[in-house]
Design brief:
two-stranded antiparallel ribbon; flat; 49% helix; 2 strands; 123 residues; 5 helices
Length: 123
Amino acid sequence: MAKSLKQVLSQIEKLKKEAESLRAKEISGVVDRIREAIDHYGLTAEELFGAGARKPAGRGRTAKAAKTGKAAAGPRKAKAPRSAGAPKYHDGAGRTWTGVGKRPNWFKDALASGKTAEELLIS
């Protein structure tokens, strides 16, 4: 039996509502598991979201520390970002490249003009 457009649209709306309800239930479970892991490992907002994240209120001790009566460990130091390294190639006009990542246009142009990579090495 053929369905009318009105029936199909009604089914779509019902399914959307059902999907929203299921999503809300799943989110609740996911949030609970995330909170449990955060408490278990004593993670901070900075560790989760970076240094610019603000701390939630009342986060003096972790739940684990509160249960055991021990003080929570101090904040962990963030690792310094890695630098690309020292320049390996130069063009003589002040432009350099470390040899890591995508080749810069000046390097490609120099190769196209007949120079070799060895000629562009910094000695």
